[in-house]
Task: structure prediction
Amino acid sequence: MNLQERINAFVKLGEFLSQFSNEVIQKKDNIEHNDMFFDGFKHQLKLAEEHNGWFTKENMAFALQGWADSLTPEKLNTWLNAYQFNSVTPKKVAIIMAGNIPLVGFHDFLAVLISGHQVIVKQSSNDKHLLPYLAKYLEFVEPQFKGKMTFTEEKLTDFDAVIATGSDNTARYFEYYFKGKPSIIRNNRNSVAVLTGNETEEDLKNLSEDIFRYYGLGCRNVSKLYVPKGYKFDGFFQGIYHWHDIVNKAKYANNYDYNKAVYLMSEFDMLENGFFMIKEDESYASPIATLFYEYYDSEAALNEKLEADSEKIQCIVAKGFAKNEIAFGATQKPELWDYADSVDSVEFLLAI
Result:
């Protein structure tokens, strides 16, 4: 199977996913094998939501929209034109996936297969319904993929390289366990936003998407805010208010109530608006329904601090602050070439 055949298969998968990428699921004409797979994938989405309360219809639709938008000939060719695939010797690459947001491991899955390797997937129990079904669809649109995708719940044994994502604790275990293999090991990272006080209401409204999408469970979600001394939070709370219905989701509301009670009993200072809290704290990782913030004296000093802590940070959201910043509202819409932890997984896969 050559590169173009692999690209064509993923383009067809993107077309299939486009039917599920809004709240009204709509069957389209001219989608290959649709009669066989459309209703089945609807059922998988239902199972995923029943199994994991964080996987709401809205969040799964958002994730599927992102992949439908990415799996186009234009996006795939722009991404892959930077690499040479001629001399790839197929290897078995294991992927240990996280399960914090829907299809969070799909980029690794795509990168392994598009590079010409075989993939062995060990999924998180929190996100186990969608990817195997999509893998089966890939086998039908491109039969040469048969035998190149394996899903397992057993201990990984027969593989040549590994991409593993987990917590800081599991990452240390992964580094020890996989020390004899080529590997990419990912651990906890969080995203930050830097405000100057000059943001428009639209900027702050867009920032709320970076905070609340997927309930803040992704490493690309903003969990920490840096604001200048004397910053007034009125505009910030106004900008995020349109997300107030999030508190009607039971799992989110339970976390909001619990964390609010902890803060009140501990007599911590915090600001809240009935569905969200902000608390001054030096940590990068904040609990659900909470955003930590810190004041800064100078942009230069803050830039220096964030550079020193770069291995803890996934995204910096800002406007005119840093060269590698991401625009407000864009953290959960990464391009194919926006690699987790800034580690080029395709380059890694072509070198093993």
Notes: The CA atoms of residues 21 and 317 lie 25 Å apart.
